[in-house]
Amino acid sequence: MDVSQIQTTLPLNPHNPLTEEEATRYDRQMRLWGIEAQQRMRNAVILVLRLRGVATEAIKNMVLAGIGKLIVVDGGDVDEEDLGSGFFFRDEDVGRKRLDVAKPRIESLNPLVNVETITDPSILEGVAFENLIQNVDLVCVTDYDRQSLIRINEVCRRHRIPFYAGGSYGFYGYIFCDLLDHEYLSPDRTAPKEAPRNVKNKAVYCKLTDALQYKWTGLTKRQTKEVNPALFFSILGLWQYEFSHQGLPLDGNSAGEIQSVANSLISTADVNKQALQEVPADLIESLSNGARHEFNPVCAIIGGVLGQDILKALGGRDPPIANFFVFDGNTGGGSVCRLNMP
Description:
By secondary structure, the protein is of the alpha/beta class. It contains 14 helices and 10 strands.
């Protein structure tokens, strides 16, 4: 089956083929994923909310790959911490609007991509946000709190817009995606080697609130350990702390409270006790100490995985993340938790 046979939210436009300049610039990647997938990326309008380290890396990947239009919303100013994780910023940019500084540098990565920036945060509220969402093909939210992620995901669901979220906390990070009913092509492993072919598959995703209510009942000890539940529940505990205190912890003094919340969530989710009874104290302490800080290598990895997965979803080739990815920078390992998906 050819990729052109797959139905996605980004239909091909036969009256607007790739230009000679685009064909030349994207030649290598089109050999990898095909001209039809490239056209879908080129037709896509991507909305990114907040420009920090993870978003910086994701944006780089998407712009270099040739998406059609990038819209970035961020009303913040460049601070000294941005200099360590955002390669769009320089020392002399501190105090200026992030997007005023970043826009020309994003455009320089690929002049063929249309870049729009919005510095007014009111665009993210009420009718204005509903109108903005209706004019994009995918939303990517980075380094937001849990309640904001849930709210934005709900708006995206109402308008049938695929949703990605990602963020980092020091040495740790995560990605969540809700791609609604997503169709994609993957290799048919039953086909003979001399006649390889692709088959169409479908993955049904759930919204963030449903994913967070997932029951781990029935998973074996081995199945549970494979997805690093300790880090997953530690991040959920951190989200609850952020909600309760209206901000992330300043240091490790909050570790006890976060650990208590995480352990309670483990019990409620019915996690296999042979695999995990409580989150390790050293993990919680490390997460608490680094929660407010960005570590450039971790941002690069999380943002790189995020950007590539978005491109994979747009192109309809191979399965995207399903549906919650966690990364541990201490071990260099990442794992995917499949939460409330068939």
